[in-house]
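Readers of this paper often ask what the protein records in our data store actually look like. The remainder of this section carries one protein's record, kept here as part of the documentation.

:::
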Amino acid sequence: MLSYGWAILTVMVVIGAIAYIIPNTESLTRNKCSFPPQMPCAGARLDFSNLTISARNGAGVTINSVTAKVISPVTADCSISKTNLKAEEQFFIYCNNNGTMNIIDDTKFRVTVTYMKSQGSYNQTLTGEVYAKYAR
């Protein structure tokens, strides 16, 4: 009978650990980002000065007039390493953290990117999410 008690206790501890970890899966993750296929994200970093996002032009054509903006949890304009991008070209988005955003903790950001295809006549906007741990 005593061995059943230990087995039940072990099962309860495992269930408790799972119940604690599952709702907080973001805390187990390093920096990650998710953008639509037209602009896949390769990574992100948040430190005192910038939120830096590494992305790629996955639109299949050259794109121009690329701009970006953080829309949540705060609003901030961002700068782009290169605003005219060939297909599959990598670029970086820099969002100023030491002035406008002033984020000093792990944070989930929503970022919009606006661009125009080289043969297009109107802007296209996409929204992605970035979960960044603050690099101390």
